[in-house]
Design a protein that fits this description.
Number of domains: 1
Number of helices: 2
Largest sheet: 8 strands, antiparallel
Helix content: under 10%
CATH architecture: Roll
CATH class: Mainly Beta
CATH topology: Pnp Oxidase, Chain A
Radius of gyration: 19 Å
Strand content: 35-45%
Shape: globular
Number of strands: 8
Order of helices and strands: EEEEHHEEEE
Length: about 160
């Protein structure tokens, strides 16, 4: 069995890069913005289920329907990555110009590539979606800004290996 072990400080890590997408099928990146200081990441692929009862059965029937996909994470806020390099950047701005906050505010369609590094083969999870769920917080016990980030995926994940 080959475990995926993204141990902190080793070559085996999880990376995320984002770029403005031209459409829902655009999962290529010419110059993706790498998101620094990831604390954790959850990749969610949840199938919805339609359930019904029949008079001739003592058990309910179920069938899988469409999937609701999302990626959630927590990041230590980096000013340029979070707010962008151009404050109040337009919807047409690049990922770096808009930053996470600008892409959320502008409702910009982005594409993402998650790279799961392994000692033998890397796995890539790609797709498109929208950045939501930003809620930066700071406390006396954790004196750096930390924010949850959610990418609400539109469509399917694409999985590939190197």
């Amino acid at each position: 069995m080959a475990y995926i072990n993204p141990a902190p400080g080793t070559a085996n890590q999880v990376t995320l890069s984002l770029e403005v997408a031209s459409n829902e099928n655009d999962i290529t990146q010419a110059s993706g913005l790498s998101i620094p200081a990831l604390q954790d990441m959850t990749i969610n692929a949840a199938n919805d289920v339609f359930t019904w009862s029949q008079l001739d059965s003592t058990a309910k029937k179920q069938v899988a329907t469409t999937s609701t996909n999302s990626i959630s994470m927590n990041v230590v806020v980096d000013q340029a990555t979070f707010f962008g390099t151009v404050l109040a950047a337009a919807v047409t701005g690049t990922m770096a110009e808009q930053g996470l906050f600008g892409c959320s505010r502008n409702k910009t369609l982005i594409n993402f590539i998650i790279r799961v590094e392994n000692s033998t083969v890397d796995t890539f999870i790609k797709g498109t979606g929208y950045i939501t769920g930003l809620a930066p917080t700071v406390t006396a016990d954790a004196p750096v800004w930390v924010s949850p980030v959610t990418i609400t995926v539109t469509g399917e994940y694409t999985v590939a290996a190197t």
